[in-house]
Amino acid sequence: MSVYLDNAATSFPKPESVYQAVEYAMRQVGASPGRGGYQRSLEASRIMFRAREAVAGLFSIPDSSRIIFTHNATGALNLALHGTLLPGDHVITTSMEHNSLMRPLYSLRDAGLELTIVQAGPDGMVNPDDIHSALRPNTRMIAVSHVSNVCGAIQPIGRIAAICHEAGAMFLVDAAQSAGYLKIDVVSEGIDLLAAPGHKGLLGPPGTGLLYVAPHLRLKPILEGGTGTDSTSLEQPLTMPEGFETGTLNLPGIAGLKAGIDFILEKGIEALFQHERNLLEQAQSGLRPIPGLTIYGPEESSLRGSLLSFTITGVDSSLLAAELDQGFDIAVRAGLHCAPLAHDTLGTLPGGTLRLSPGWSTTSEEIAFFSDAVVQCARKINL
Ligand SMILES: Cc1ncc(COP(=O)(O)O)c(C=O)c1O
Question: Rounded to an integer, what distance in angstroms lies between the CA atom of residue 148 and that of residue 49?
Answer without folding.
Answer: 31
